[in-house]
Every structure is written in structure tokens, then in C-alpha cells.
Amino acid sequence: MNDLDPNQAPRPLAYAEPRKGDQPTWVRTLIPVGSALLGVAAGVVIVIFGGCGVMNAVGYPYIGPPSAPRPPFQWWPPTLFFAAVIGSAVGAVMLYRAHKPWFLVGLLIGIGVMSLVEGLCFANP
User: Fold this and answer.
1) Which of 19, 50, 89, 119 is the most exposed place for a label (fewest CB within 10 A)?
2) In this model, does residue 70 exceed pLDDT 70?
């Protein structure tokens, strides 16, 4: 019998039973989406608490009227921010190597968006 014979009935496909450890499709979809949303939330929290804490410690409170005399420039807030950027880069590489790319994507989106929002909040008019 020829495989191209139109009169021949098609062979049934050899479907296998699902393995015991297989997850349903909705779970396989939910895990990356949930990881990305968790990363966005972590990025938002990191930027809000980090940025507001540093600005408050330097003398630019986020609650109440602005301070009357402008505090002198201090080097430790930009140095601390730069150290946080380097630490975030190292953490991002570690997360990527740990096969958690969706959390990393969400984290970078959350940090980027909240950095822009917070920069606008603290910008001088």
C-alpha cells in the first residue's frame, strides 16, 4: 500500500496520554504573566520607597511645604542611586541566568516607568 493512495483510510495518530507533571495551558500562560506583573509591582515599590526616602533624607520632603532654604548639594544621594543601578544590573543578570526572564521584564518596565513619574514629581517648576 502506498501512503499517497487516496482510497486508503488515514492512519490514526499516536496520541500519548498526558504526563502526570504536565500543567494545563492556562497555568503555563499565567506563570509568565504573573511573573511580569510581580516584577512591575516590585519595580514600582523599589523606586517609590528608594526615591522618596533619599529625597526626604537629603532635605526635600515629599510631605508638607518645601524647605525654605535650599539644602547644599550632597554627593551621597547620586552615589547611592548609582550603586543601586549597578546592583540592579547585577541582579538583572542573575535573574536572567536563573531563567526568570518575565520577572526581569516586568521589573525593568516598573522601574523605568516609575523613575519617569518620580522624576517629574521632584522636578523643579
Assistant:
1) 19
2) no
